[in-house]
Amino acid sequence: MVESDNEKAIGTYIWVPKKWTVKMPESTVSNERDLLTLIDLALLTKDEQWFMELSSNLVSTKNNPEVNTKKSEFLMSQNRIRNSEAKR
Length: 88
What we know:
Mean pLDDT: 75
Shape: elongated
Order of helices and strands: HHH
Largest sheet: none
Number of strands: 0
């Protein structure tokens, strides 16, 4: 379902031909900053299963000192993507 600032597009579905899509290689994300970004994306897309998986990965990353984690430059109590949209 489309979310847009175009009133006519809100609530509609779009179809994308399979030949226009490209499967991305699977990758593992082990740093906190990237996991937080993906969690924001899961929230925006309302993908509960992916959110739970990413949250679990974040907890295990924080609990495992052997994993190379990068701290985010800043941590905010709100969704970083939503906040960046508000600044436009």
